Amino acid sequence: MQVPILKQRDYLIASVQAALTDADLMQLRDSLVTQVGTFRSRGVIVDVTALDVMDSFAVRTLGDLAHMIRLRGAETVIVGIQPEVAFAMVQLGLTLAGVSTALDLEEGLAFLDKRIKSMSGAR
Amino acid sequence: MNRHEIRVPIDSDTDIVTARQKGREMASRLGFTSTDLTLIATAISELARNIVLYAHQGEIVLSIAEDGARRGMGVIAHDDGPGIPDVERALEEGFSTSRSFGMGLSGVRRLVDEFKIVSKVGSGTTVSVKKWK
C-alpha cells in the first residue's frame, strides 16, 4: 500500500494508513527524499500511528529516511509511535537514535515550527 | 497434527506482513494483552525476515501451546537454507546488527519466553519460540 504524502505549508506529511511491506517503506523513503526537493520543503512528518509493528527493517528504513532528508537540508519528525510498539522496539534494541520523534501530528508540527524558526534565526 | 495450526509460506516481503498479521490474530483469539500481541507480531516479523534474508524461502507455523493449565502461542520458523555455521555467535547480543537488516536472533529471544534453535550448515534452520499468557 502506497503512503499518501500531503504538502502543507513548508512541510510534507506522510500518513501511514496500513501495514507496510519492505518495498512500501523503501518507496516512502525515496519519495520523501525526492519530494523535499520538488516542493522545497523545510520539514517532513511521518505519522506511524497506524503501524502495529515496527520491526528492525522499518526502524532502520525510517532512520535512513530521516538522515537522508537532513542531508537534503530538511528536518524529519516521526510521530505517533504507539506505546506497545515503543515497548517492543526497546526490547528488540531499536532506539531510532538521532531521529526526532513527537507524540502526534500536532506535536510534530509544533516541533518543526520551533526547530525551523531557530535554524533560520541562526543564519 | 494440531488442528489449530496455521502455516504461512514465506518467500517475499509481503509474506512477512501476512505472517505477522495471522500471528497477531491468533494471539488475539488466545486472549493475549495488547502489549503481548505486539511483541508476538514483532518476533514473527523478525523470524520471517531472517528467512527471506538468508534462506529466501521457508515457512512460519503458528500454533497453540499448552503445558498443563498454561496456554500460550508457539511460533516455528523453518527453512531449508544455508544454515548458521556458529549458532552461539549468532545469538550474541547485536551480532547481526551491523551487517544486515535483521536484529539477529538475540533480539527475538528478548521478545519471547522460550527460544530454541536448531541449525545445520547446508540443510537449514528451525527456530521455535513460545510466549505464555
Q: How would you characterize the overall build of this protein?
A:
- With 123 residues, chain A is an alpha/beta fold.
- Chain A has one domain (5-121): Transcription Regulator spoIIAA.
- Helices cover 49% and strands 18% of the residues of chain A.
- Chain A has helices at 22-38, 56-71, 83-92, 105-121; strands at residues 5-8, 11-15, 43-47, 75-79, 100-102.
- The radius of gyration of chain A is 14 Å and the shape is globular.
- The N and C termini of chain A lie far apart (40 Å).
- The model of chain A has no long low-confidence stretch (mean pLDDT 94).
- Mean pLDDT of chain B is 89; it is low at 97-102.
- Chain B starts with 5 loop residues before the first strand and ends with a strand.
- Chain B has helices spanning 13-29, 34-55, 87-90, 105-111, and strands at 6-10, 58-67, 70-79, 114-120, 124-132.
- Chain B has one domain: Histidine kinase-like ATPase, C-terminal domain (Heat Shock Protein 90), CATH 3.30.565.10.
- In chain B, strand 2 (58-67) and strand 3 (70-79) form a beta hairpin.
- In chain B, helix 1 runs antiparallel to helix 2 and helix 2 packs antiparallel against helix 4 (105-111).
- Chain B is α+β, with helices and mostly antiparallel strands and 133 residues long.
- Chain A binds chain B through residues 19-23, 52-57, 60, 82-85, 87-88, 91-94, and chain B through 13-14, 16-17, 20-21, 24, 34-35, 37-39, 41-42, 45-46, 49, 93-94, 97, 101-103, 106-108, 110-111.
Give unreliable regions of chain A as ranges.
none
What is the element string of chain B, with H for helices and E for strands? EHHEEHHEE
The helix count of chain B comes to 4
Strand arrangement in the largest pleated sheet of chain B: 1-2-3-5-4
Q: How many angstroms separate the termini of chain A? A: 40 Å
Task: Indicate the radius of gyration of chain B in whole angstroms.
Answer: 14 Å
Task: Specify the overall morphology of chain B.
Answer: globular
CATH architecture of chain B: 2-Layer Sandwich
| Largest interface in this structure | A-B, 22 and 28 residues
